[in-house]
Amino acid sequence: MTVISVANNKGGVGKTTTTLNLGAALSMRGYRVLAVDLDPQASLTLYLGLDPGELETTSYHVLTKKCPALGAVMMTRVAALDLIPASIDLAAAEMEISGMMGREYLLRRQLETLEDLYDVVLIDNMPSLGVLTVNSLMASDYVIVPIEPTYLAYKGLQMIDTTIGEVQSYRPELSMLGVVITMVDERTKHAREIIGKIRENYRILGTPIRRSVKFADAAAGNQPISEFAGEQFEGARAYAEIADEIERLLPLKKA
Hints:
Elements: E1 2-6, H1 15-28, E2 33-38, H2 43-47, H3 59-63, H4 69-72, E3 74-75, E4 81-84, H5 93-97, H6 106-112, E5 120-125, H7 131-139, E6 142-147, H8 151-167, E7 175-181, H9 189-201, H10 213-220, H11 225-228, H12 234-249
Parallel strand pairs: 1-5, 1-6, 2-4, 2-5, 6-7
Antiparallel strand pairs: 3-4
Helix pairs in contact: 1-12, 6-7
């Protein structure tokens, strides 16, 4: 089972969109995928058409050891893509687990119990580098960083890179798989310059994904972009290309 964190401490850069659409693309390739919503805003949970306020078990219960990981797993309308959802309760988890022994390893130990059930786990993180994101990184083999091509987002990329380096002291297996460039307007000189800086220093997965209202419409319709806009839509092709590249780069295994 390969675990991938989708992380960036800056908000609004496409973490949830990338988690959902990459998960859908991998599931279409025959992988059993589990998405984990680790953001109290529960954007991924909402994206998949679930009401966080009505859920009895979420990632909060998993992290605080109130239920096993399997007890929080839910099927979604996307074939071969399951979800551990989130709710606002997750905001209290950091305080509750702060005194627990080995608190950085809580998610890792829970996900290890699902080893035989999934091929790929994708974790959607909150825009923070707190204990929840550290739990995610400690549970992961790789990190994908979505980034909008702006100066501030690029500085955020450098911060998450530094954090990954710090976590590697405790989990040497962790590495940055690459960057997904989102919400691109290539007509602007600034965007082109930032993409150039990223390309000089990081691996870019796939091609930069252009800004499109169809992504917001797909989220409102609780659908992956490939289902909402069709597999030939350039945004859908971009995520398919990223899935293909991940298959080439990683030893993904189908059970």
